[in-house]
Prior knowledge:
heterodimer, A: alpha/beta, B: alpha+beta, 8-stranded antiparallel beta sheet, flat
Amino acid sequence: xxxxxxxxxxxxxxxxxxPSLGVCSVCSRAMCHQHASAESTFTQCxxxxxxxxxxxxxTGQRPPGANRMYDDDWAYSYRNRYYAGYAPIYTGTHYHxxxxxxxxxxxxxxxGEYDDDSxxxxxxxxxx
Amino acid sequence: xxxxxxxLGALSPAERETIASGQFAGDFTAEALLDQMxxxxxxxxxxxxxxxxxxxxxxxxxxGAFASLWLxxxxxxxxxxxxxxxxxxxxxxxxxxxxxxxxxxxxxxxxVALPFLAILKQDMDPQQxxxxxxxxxxxxxxxxxxxxxxxxxxxxxxxxVETAYHDNWFSGSARLADASVLRWSVVDDVxxxxxxxxxxxxxxxxxxxxxxxxxxxxxxxxxNKRYGVAPNASADGHKIAVQGGAKRRTIKLTRKIxxxxxxxxxxxxxxxxxxxxxxxxxAPARSAA
Lengths: 128, 289
């Protein structure tokens, strides 16, 4: 079975990589449980549900503050709106045209160069 | 009202202790943190709505009690029952209002911290934990007062009392899925100005105004082997500084926002500040590898 084709993240986007459990009824991408929208009864991916939700808000079919508990569906809806003015860095390796409209700053992470060690990762707010 | 009291009864001892201490702090996975926060936020939203209703009902009961006393002379002792009943209702509502007021959580918690952390969760690995501290007390809580109230006169005002508050209410740090380390803090400095003047009718009237300056500070530490930092780092409306290291570079942003009320700031301000830091992140230079 294919891996999930959705992208995770907000400030930077990355490949999900989880095994898919189904296909989005709108965009036909493979999606995992994490990327299936609960509010669409798991028939749509969170991205498609977010886009549809944005249009529903725009046409007045859904109030903008309907989701006040800030769940993942809300976060994806916010992300879709926010990307109108923000180009996230894409660090994944699986291109998909679905995200073309997000205008990501794409580059591929060079495998083997990733280093998690830090010399000043605990730096505070004060200027040096 | 009863739904709020039911929710209050359903709060765990740990949640009650958290509210009583006025501090929400710890090291959590994003999912566990948000679950706890949503539970408290739901209670607080219900609490706010109930207290607004209780204020109206308590006022109505008190007015009704006085009206019944006045009607005592007209309708006789039968009105005594109504007076006693209304006084009893007013006392019950007043005690409930006082009880719920002690459990009030600053709106910063559910209107700023919760949405920001819900966004931050998207950039974290599920098993990764983040440290967070949220002050649940009101910005003008007495423990946040700085110095003594300053009293003066000016213009038409016979008395102006200004009190300063320092509210360091939100801070935390998280390691993100792209190995960046994000730190943030939000500090509100509030000046409460109580101005008293004599009105044209001769009555003394006092108005309260609040001036708030919010300082949002974000520090994004990125691994050199994963990201570079733009050579001419800049951010509109932010003070920016970049510190270099052999393995990491740190982008520090500070933004100050002034408002003339105690209303919560838009969570988008905090999200925008982090986004501004990420806007200065680039593909790493070969020499950095």
